[in-house]
Amino acid sequence: MLRTVVLAALIALPGMAYAQDAQVDTPPQRIRSVTLTGDQKCPKSSGGEIVVCSTLDQPYRIPKSLREDKPIAAQNQSWVNRAATMDQIGRVAGGLPDTCSAVGTGGQSGCFMQRNQAYAAERRAPASETNTTP
């Protein structure tokens, strides 16, 4: 039984190789790129055409090349961000803990936290610059 299967495969192998070579004789006339959303199916290709399909993960999101990663100007920020900034300024002026001031009990830990946050921001900056350039 195994011999007949192997023999049939060996006989069919040259025929399959010839069929593949026959398709390569003429290059495609057109290559079409299609972006699919949701449950769409890839369209069938016609003679002399290759269809390349890709799916769009987040169809309603602005593409990365068009996004702006720059900080938002103060006058364009929400009142929540403005209130948080004013709160932080008040904490520093009052010498509250974790504010990096010479006055108060938490000056050491606050300075350490600020240095860590600055370091993390510096590390993120080159990564965001490389992601935005195509």
How would you describe what is shown here?
It is built from 3 helices and 2 strands, in the order αββαα. The chain has a domain at 103-134. Helices cover 49% and strands 10% of the residues. It is mainly alpha-helical and 134 residues long. A two-stranded parallel sheet has the order 1-2. The mean pLDDT is 76. The protein is elongated and about 90 Å long. The relative contact order is 0.07.
Which characteristics define this entry?
134 residues, mainly alpha, two-stranded parallel sheet, 2 strands, 10% strand, elongated, signal
Percent strand equals: 5-15%
| Total number of strands | 2
State the end-to-end distance.
Answer: 58 Å
Class inferred from helices and paired strands: mainly alpha
Please give the radius of gyration in angstroms. Answer: 31 Å
Strand count, sense and barrel status of the largest sheet are: 2 strands, parallel
Unreliable residue stretches: none
Signal peptide: 1-19
Keywords: Signal
Can you lay out the helices and strands and say which pair or pack?
Blueprint: H1 2-24, E1 30-36, E2 49-55, H2 79-94, H3 107-132
Parallel strand pairs: 1-2
